[in-house]
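The data are quoted verbatim here:
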Amino acid sequence: QVQLVESGGGSVEAGGSLRLSCVASGHTYSDNCVAWFRQVQGKKREVIATIYTFDGVTYYDDSVKGRFTISQDDAGNTVYLQMTNLKPEDTAIYYCAAVPSLSSLVARQGCTRVEDEYNSWGQGTQVTVSS
């Protein structure tokens, strides 16, 4: 089982930047979908970005497209979320999640954006953006 730990959250002013890290340990796989979700207080958790570690293909929700970048390190054990031009509405708890994924399926549909299909989750890290 893969254990995930997020870090890098904190408080920033609007227009600022943060980089979140998701470090995987335990039994890892080379072909995983990794997603960043966020949950605004009082609202449901939503996916904002995914990456398929096998080939690096990414997906972004429209709310963060052009501002956030999901990436992975060369070793494949860390996924990042580089957040720029942060807005107050980005304030949320950010979670990373992962699930082993077959390349044949991901190639056709992309990484799943259904949170129930992810079987490894981090504990969450708070991002607060002030105006």
About this structure: The chain has a mean pLDDT of 93. The chain is about 5% helix and 50% strand. Helices lie at 103-109.
